[in-house]
Amino acid sequence: MNLFTTDKTPMIKRSQNGSSNDNKVVKPVAISIGAFALLTFLLILFYVRKKKIQLSKKAQAKTKGPRERAEDFLLNDGSVVPNKREMDELELPLFDFSTLVIATNNFSNANKLGQGGFGCVYKGKLMEGEVVAIKRLSRISDQGIEELKNEVRLIAKLQHRNLVRVLGCCIEAKEKLLIYEFMENKSLDMFIFEKEKNMTLNWKSRLEIMCGIARGLLYLHQDSRFKIIHRDLKASNILLDKDMNPKISDFGMARIFGSDQTDAKTKKVVGTYGYMSPEYAMDGHFSTKSDVFSFGVLVLEIVSGKRNTGSSYSSSQHNLLGETWTLWKEGKALELVDKSIGAKFSENEVLRCIQIGLLCVQEHVEDRPNMSKVLLLLCSENAQISLPKYPGFFIRRRNTETESSSQQDDFMTINEITVSILHGR
Fold first, then answer.
1. Active site residue 232
2. Which homologous superfamily does the CATH classification assign to the domain defined by 188-420?
3. Does 242 count as an annotated binding residue?
4. Helix H or strand E encompassing 133
5. pLDDT tens digits, 291-331
6. Where is the Protein kinase domain (predicted)?
7. Catalytic residue among 7, 96, 189, 232
């Protein structure tokens, strides 16, 4: 009996030890399974809740009006305006896309006014009878979005008779549009560069157009709430109303300066070939004097009826700035005058305008007058005018493989140009 009892006792002990080991394994497994189940439940709950929020937002978006959609875009999809308060201060008129579809007859080709790098411009007639111009950004490209935002930001800040009024915008799904006042005579480049129309532009009209552009530019530089550099002043961005009054348009590349700021620098040089100042094209420096340079090019184009294209020239030929400088130094500046003007013009006024144009396109920034001085020189025959120094201008590098296609390109990069200084002979 003792032996039996002695043998049984260890057996009982072994059984107790085995049960204890099993419990040690089961408890952690059970805890892990429970934690995993809880985590899975929480993830499913989070996913369901997120889907409900997304569906709710989509439903709200469908019921939002044009202003709410625009606010979402301007406040959340970029930094046009930093907060809701500034958004409200813009007092931005917003249009529903369906209204613009009706106004343009579904953006028909018959209503197309022109096409630019970021989209097309259409003529439209609103239900109230007002005729407008509608710029529709391309849907297949993000190009132009920043330009649109920039124009929106400037809408409430620019009010001048020589600036095109932006009447509002439309931001709906992938559609981004700007609505402008309609200009019956379209753009200045059509009148000074097309033979069919330039004969209708006499000298008096040309001088008034120069003065109007100068007033608008002076407002941007000095008299508006902020100092604004346009950065893309050119003939196609000067629009003409029914009375041939000029209005500066397209502020997509404009920049706002602080009251004490005189210049800025950018790594991204964007503009139109032939109108950019040397310091901007080569080094990215821009200021009010960059706009002055562009204005000087415009003046010489209006006088001559020729584009400052900057195409390749032989050693005896130059671009418009070089040609003007040569004729000026040789005392033959009147040869520059557009033949379509005829003989009905004041030689003193023409020579004065050519001299002002050359003053504006001088190579060095410090030599160029500001716009207040330019306007004074244009409008006063008694104002003393200094002699210009040589201009800064560009000659395109000849590339036999790409020359034919590049001549059609209005836009340029720094790699496509070189600066050349022409001295009088």
1. yes
2. Transferase(Phosphotransferase) domain 1 (1.10.510.10)
3. no
4. strand 131-137
5. 999 999 999 999 999 999 754 444 445 689 999 999 999 99
6. 107-393
7. 232
